[in-house]
Amino acid sequence: MSKNLLPGWQPLSTGATAALCIVGHPTVQVQSPRAFNARFAAIGIDAVMFSMDILPAAIDAFVAMLRGWENAPGCIVTVPHKQALAAACDELSARARMLGAVNVVRREADGRLIGDITDGLGFANAARGHGVVLEGCRAAVIGCGGAGSAIAHALAEAGAAELRLADPDGGRTAKLAGLLRESFPILTVLEEIEDLAGLDIAVNASPVGMNDDARLPLAAESSAAQSLAPPTLVADVVTRPEITPWLAAGRALGCPIQTGAEMTGGQVKEMAGHLGFDFSKVP
Ligand code: NAD
Questions:
Q1: Nearest Cα residue to atom 9 of ligand 1
Q2: Planar angle of CA 125, 126, 132, nearest 5 degrees
Q3: Which of 15, 31, 62, 268 is the most exposed place for a label (fewest CB within 10 A)?
Q4: Is residue 275 within 8 Å of 73, Cβ to Cβ?
């Protein structure tokens, strides 16, 4: 548990403070508390976000507590609880239902839980910020777990023309491809990534490259990796380190890059909106 001193930190809490947590296991890596607390302070909202590192065995108890937690507007959800919280929700957005996962849950006054997943929106918003036109875009999504599925779904929803998918777990690739084909019949979905030439986006949506992992999600000598070139946007979901080996490789080739932190930042407004906070006036 962190005992770090935070320079300038002022705990602001009253008896009426809205208590918002991000639930995960572990949680030392999470970025949301800083992002939300800075915005609460900037526009004077009496709310605080903190992390709750909850073991999988205790997640049912957490859900029961959330239903009865009167000063909690809901919670943010991260790995490994996204699927368990989706199963526990009383209502899900269409995308959360399709993906079987949530990353934000609103608690209604009667204790009902309403879930949504904004990871893909965060990625899409960040990519637009890099000037990528998503309508008609062609992208490679490397990793078909929770993050990769959310990104692929958001790109498809934004009008992508072609998605190339890869995951060492072929079952996951096939499952995501099937869901996409069913929901977006005119989208071209390829279940392999033979090359990246001419694509608008090549995103690592796997945990490869996290912390001290020096690996690339595609082997450097593979024909796919060899075909990477500007102006493809090279993106990563991993937030630690900020510049992953995949991003470093893209940058060395002269490609524009998009970090995992940009994806996180790109969805703060959407998550806050689901929880009932209006961040549109944040400077
Ligand atoms: P997950 O376990 O659901 O999925 C990871 C997938 O990556 C698995 O299907 C696995 O088989 C696949 N994989 C592993 N090695 C691979 C490789 N070499 N090539 C292709 N696929 C490979 O995990 P997740 O929830 O999708 O999270 C993945 C990463 O995304 C984590 O590091 C997580 O912290 C990060 N994440 C970031 C954000 C953000 O906002 N920046 C949001 C969600 C998740």
A1: 145
A2: 85
A3: 15
A4: yes
How many Å lie between the centroid of ligand 1 and the Cα of residue 6?
30
Ligand 1 atom nearest the C-alpha of 238 is 32
Q: How many CB atoms lie within 10 A of CB 222?
A: 13
pLDDT for 253 beyond 70: yes
Distance from Cα 207 to the centre of ligand 1, integer Å: 4
Cα of first residue to Cα of last residue in the chain, in angstroms, is: 32
SS3 124: helix
Q: How far apart are CA 70 and CA 109, in angstroms?
A: 8
Residue type at position 123: F
> Which positions are catalytic?
82
pLDDT tens for 54-74 read 999 999 999 999 999 999 999
CA nearest to 126, candidates 228, 248, 237: 237
Minimal-distance CA residue to ligand 1 atom 25: 146
CB 255 within 8 A of CB 236: no
Q: Tens digit of pLDDT for each residue in 96-105?
A: 999 999 999 9
Residue for token pair 């937030």: 239
- Cα of 2 from ligand 1 centre, angstroms: 25
Q: Please check the confidence at residue 1 and state whether its pLDDT lies above 60.
A: no
Residue 12's pLDDT is what? 63
Number of Cβ within 10 Å of residue 114's Cβ equals 19
Q: What is the dihedral of CA 246, 243, 270, 41, to 10 degrees?
A: 170
Report how far residue 249's alpha carbon sits from residue 234's, in angstroms, rounded to the nearest whole number: 9
If DSSP codes are grouped into helix, strand and coil, which group holds residue 201?
A: strand
